[in-house]
Write a structure and sequence with these properties.
Mean pLDDT: 91
Shape: globular
Distance between the termini: 28 Å
Organism: Spermophilus dauricus (Daurian ground squirrel)
Keywords: Cytoplasm, Lyase
Structural class: alpha/beta
Number of strands: 9
Family: Belongs to the enoyl-CoA hydratase/isomerase family.
Radius of gyration: 20 Å
Helix content: 40-55%
InterPro entries: ClpP/crotonase-like_dom_sf, Enoyl-CoA_hyd/isom_CS, Enoyl-CoA_hydra/iso
Strand content: 5-15%
Low-confidence stretches: 1-10
Largest sheet: 6 strands, mixed
Order of helices and strands: HHHEEHEHHEEHEEHHEHEHHHH
Strand order of the largest sheet: 1-2-3-4-6-9
EC number: 4.1.1.94
């Protein structure tokens, strides 16, 4: 019956876009030429984006450029896209922790690249590239959490907003410093911040370039919790334990839940409801569903 229902109603163009893996916001019709941007970014080496996929379905994505407070070089931006593509194809994945190496999250963009990409055209092209990447990151069927150790500044602060949740260590700080650089967030951070803390608080945070310590960030709803430890290893263990409560279950169910929430956020209500119905068709009568019914039936006898 489920399959017949799935075929009964065609998906809207917006819903199809959300379903398709690898689809980005911008393409040549918007004046965005990805291969040209990639060639430009390749000229700015340094650091790496490291991905570790655990057997429990949790991945750990590490921003690794400690000599520059894990600032994003051009090559790191390219590698981030590569890791997102890898995660899009990780069917066993359920959750993801994003962190920075050496107890610091990220200071944003590497200034060497920023200075070289000085024209308006360069800035807009870079904005489209990173918005494409982080939007695909947000749509991953993985429950993601940013582990904010040390400082998350500028583009680093923007990256935290692309995660589903944020955790801070006691001595960490989030700060959108864009105004002090004479610009505004360009990786989608302003739009996502409004969704997280509301327009009034977002305006204060952005226009004031406010320093959000763990207490302030918790009070305005920017983060879910402040962890007990600031130690790099211990805080990662705490973050893994925190995330496990949300990814404990079959991958196909966790992934369907994340997809349904994404559709509720991005689609009109009618489209989101249809998408939720279709996602149900992928798990109803599946192994996890049948096992749960059998298990409950035993207790009801």
């Amino acid at each position: 019956m489920a399959k017949s229902l799935l075929n009964a109603t065609s998906l809207s163009a917006r819903t199809k876009l959300l379903h398709q893996v690898g689809v980005s916001l911008y393409n040549t019709s918007h004046g965005f030429y990805e291969e040209e941007v990639k060639k430009t970014l390749q000229q700015f080496p340094g650091g790496s984006i490291d991905l570790q996929k655990e057997d429990n379905g949790i991945g750990i994505l590490t921003l690794n450029n400690p000599s520059k407070m894990n600032a994003f070089s051009g090559v790191m931006m390219l590698q981030l896209l590569e890791k997102v593509i890898e995660l899009e194809n990780w069917t066993e994945g359920k959750g993801l922790i994003v962190r920075g190496a050496k107890n610091t999250f990220s200071s944003g963009s590497d200034l060497n690249a920023v200075k070289a990409l000085a024209t308006q055209q360069d800035g807009v092209a870079l904005s489209m590239f990173m918005q494409n990447t982080l939007t695909r990151f947000m749509r991953l069927p993985l429950i993601s959490v940013a582990l904010i150790q040390g400082r998350a500044l500028g583009g680093g602060a923007e990256f935290t907003t692309a995660c589903d949740f944020r955790l801070m260590t006691p001595e960490s700080e989030i700060r959108f410093v864009h105004k002090e650089m004479g610009i505004i967030p360009s990786w989608g951070g302003a739009s996502r911040l409004v969704e997280i803390i509301g327009s009034r608080q977002a305006l204060k945070v952005l226009s004031g370039a406010l320093k959000l310590n763990s207490e302030k960030a918790l009070n305005i709803g920017m983060v879910e919790e402040v962890l007990q430890s600031s130690d790099e290893t211990k805080s990662l263990e705490e973050a893994q334990e925190w995330l496990m409560q949300f990814v404990n279950g079959p991958p196909e169910v966790i992934r369907a839940l994340k997809k349904s929430v994404c559709s509720g956020r991005e689609l009109y209500l009618e489209e989101a409801l249809q998408n939720e119905r279709d996602l149900l068709g992928t798990v109803w009568g599946g192994p996890a569903n049948l096992e749960a019914i059998a298990r409950k039936g035993k207790f009801n006898k």
